[in-house]
Fold these 2 entries.
Entry 1:
Amino acid sequence: MKRIAVIGAGKWGSALAFALGQNPENEVVITSRHPRDVPNFVDLETALQREYLVMAIPAQQVGAWLKEHFRYRDQKVLVAAKGIEASTGRFLNEIFAPYVPDQNIAFLSGPSFAAEVIQGLPTALVVSSADAQTAMGFAEAFPEFIRTYSDDDIAGAEVCGSYKNVIAIAAGICAGLKLGNNAAAALISRGLIEMRRFGLAYGARDETFLGLSGAGDLFLTASSVLSRNYRVGLGLAEGKAKEQIVEELGEVAEGIGTAYALHGIAQRSGVYLPIATEVYEILEGKAPRESLNDLLTR
Ligand SMILES: NC(=O)C1=CN([C@@H]2O[C@H](COP(=O)(O)OP(=O)(O)OC[C@H]3O[C@@H](n4cnc5c(N)ncnc54)[C@H](O)[C@@H]3O)[C@@H](O)[C@H]2O)C=CC1
Ligand SMILES: O=C(CO)COP(=O)(O)O
């Protein structure tokens, strides 16, 4: 029996708790900063005693959360968030490194809308860890409707999971401006190339970008209104400010923070990130049509 605690009861944490609960080999509890009226809800201290932790707190908040609440007790940790910390440019593996040893941590990626997982719809995910046993331990915890693969390309999982959210914002802008399917396809394919170029510089493996974590999650997120990031793009195309969009969304859209993080990385390192940079400029108020036309005619 795997005793699992999901930390963070938002859309993704709730969906993961549901999915993992479908496997009779697991005993799953969930916790969050606001008590929830769900049968498996426990307080944070109880949750942190569990052997397996699934972290579903957004990337922009998890660093502060770890500092305030986390105490390592040999737990195995699965990081389910996707994003790069805007304030520091840190990836999630860097944020968690001071708290959890490499052999006890894994990262979840792949095309997976929470809204479909919670319906038990077929899904495929990747569990990446430096330790094969840790990756397998989490991969086999998922129920049959979720096909899991395991690998050790943490850099690839992280770059794909975070960067695709920024491309999804750009795709939402493209759709909102009614630039057409040709433009959308050009944008998404160039977004994959940009994400791959950035990821290779971070030590990611090439094949990861054509797999579930890369192309799979990018195509999913950059082509559906189920994506919060895609919906951010639609709002930007309407001329709304990001603050209003986030308020109306009522859920996290990690692509915003990651766009700021990527802009900072590009400024510091000189790496060429045209789409991420244009998304940052539009989030900062640049006219979307001018920006996307620049991008597509460059
Ligand atoms: N929703 C989805 O379809 C998927 C989401 N993800 C990722 O999962 C992560 C979480 O996303 P969602 O659950 O969808 O977002 P959400 O907006 O539905 O929920 C976020 C949750 O984090 C909690 N939270 C925020 N700040 C916190 C803090 N400082 N301390 C404790 N809890 C805090 C909130 O209370 C909320 O319950 C994100 O990184 C997202 O990219 C990954 C795959 C699918
Ligand atoms: O990561 C996701 C799907 O794989 C969820 O995407 P959004 O955060 O854009 O909704």
Entry 2:
Amino acid sequence: MASIRIGTSALRASVAKPIQSAALNGARCYSSAKAKSLKDTFADNLPAEIEKVKKLRKEHGNKVVGEVTLDQVYGGARGIKSLVWEGSVLDSEEGIRFRGRTIPEIQQLLPKAPGGEEPLPEGLFWLLLTGEIPSAQQVKDLSAEWAARSDVPAFVEELIDRCPSTLHPMAQFSLAVTALEHESSFAKAYAKGVNKKEYWSYTFEDSMDLIAKLPTIASKIYRNVFKDGKVAPIQKDKDYSFNLANQLGFGGNKDFVELMRLYLTIHTDHEGGNVSAHTTHLVGSALSSPMLSLSAGLQGLAGPLHGLANQEVLNWLTKMKQAVGNDLTDESIKNYLWSTLNAGQVVPGYGHAVLRKTDPRYVSQREFALRKLPDDPMFKLVSQVYKIAPGVLTEHGKTKNPFPNVDAHSGVLLQYYGLTEANYYTVLFGVSRALGVLPQLIIDRALGMPIERPKSFSTEAYAKLVGAKL
Ligand SMILES: CC(=O)SCCNC(=O)CCNC(=O)[C@H](O)C(C)(C)COP(=O)(O)OP(=O)(O)OC[C@H]1O[C@@H](n2cnc3c(N)ncnc32)[C@H](O)[C@@H]1OP(=O)(O)O
Ligand SMILES: O=C([O-])CC(=O)C(=O)O
């Protein structure tokens, strides 16, 4: 015990100093007099976290954690244990746990807005980064801090204004996030030759700035492409989800604001292997700034097998209604599912690389719908598809998971409140995903994680490896 304490305090000294010097170097700190700030909380916990990993590796570093088959190599690395992700772990049957907590648990535990029912995503960001449930005051301070950092540089707004409205919102989003590189304190500090031990502090500052600016950027894209181009200013005394809802033009609807709080909370993190999280981590491992790393992750999220599936689901449902007309019987839905499969297409919103049961994120959205929009015809259609699709997909016999994922439900909630433009939906997913992948980037830098570089072989080389003749 004593020796761990000595080790920890020595580490604490070596980490604490650079934090101070980072602050002196101009890295911003908005710590509250009332409650311990997020940065201080993370910094105080860091020496013990570093020590934990050091000890684990020292004592067990040479233990085998898995073996890899040739099928896994050709099968999208499914199931290969090769990443470290602290924020969440995904169980194939149970679904996601954020720092050990299920979605219903975080709905209970995380602070809510006054009069609100859903957790504030600020709280989940705190939990993902520190492993601790923040107090209501800490979450309030974080909302205020993000609001204070929300100004978007004029050239980024102009860049968005210059995009043709036919450029997909996700391409505009990742473009704008890439352009924020101009503001990166990490990139500037690195260029000046900052000490490795200070990387995390600048990564933290960049991540906070980046997250703070996303509602204005996301809303600018929405308002430019679909409305009058005007975006309301951030209200400094309001929470992140209220501001996003308000800037999109839906701030007057309390239920939509609540939906945003739920939506931004549940879409954050899904362990490290999904395309957006893994890409952000991979690009970040080259010490690219948080802006460039997140932008890369967003570009992965924009693929139809990943986050873009939420737009595909609503489009698919709309096409089904057009094809089938008002006769939405179980039989006609079944036939439509088969026509999708027989055309060699996937049923969007169904299946998953890891999950083998209904996604608990789907369940939490369904519960929201049952409370707020039980009679909406699109919700009823989604529910009817939920009854039929698993059976059809099972009979089809290809997918390992015939149940719905998060994307099967999100669009139907948004369209109910008037956000009907499906090809915008993944931008909202991206705002939330930033809150999940950036904590890990900060942790990666704090733990000094190395550049990622797995081994590849040619088919000939693999054949040789397994003793096959081609
Ligand atoms: C936030 C998220 O990213 S959640 C996922 C969002 N994506 C979607 O909803 C798109 C539809 N779903 C899919 O395409 C897949 O289920 C994925 C991409 C999510 C997972 O892919 P995999 O892990 O490869 O799934 P799985 O191992 O079950 O695939 C086996 C076969 O079933 C097919 N399959 C999987 N899901 C579906 C589906 N929903 N509809 C039709 N076929 C499917 C695969 O295309 C694959 O076919 P192939 O052998 O001809 O290549
Ligand atoms: O885990 C995955 O592969 C995809 C997913 O659901 C997510 O990233 O949210």
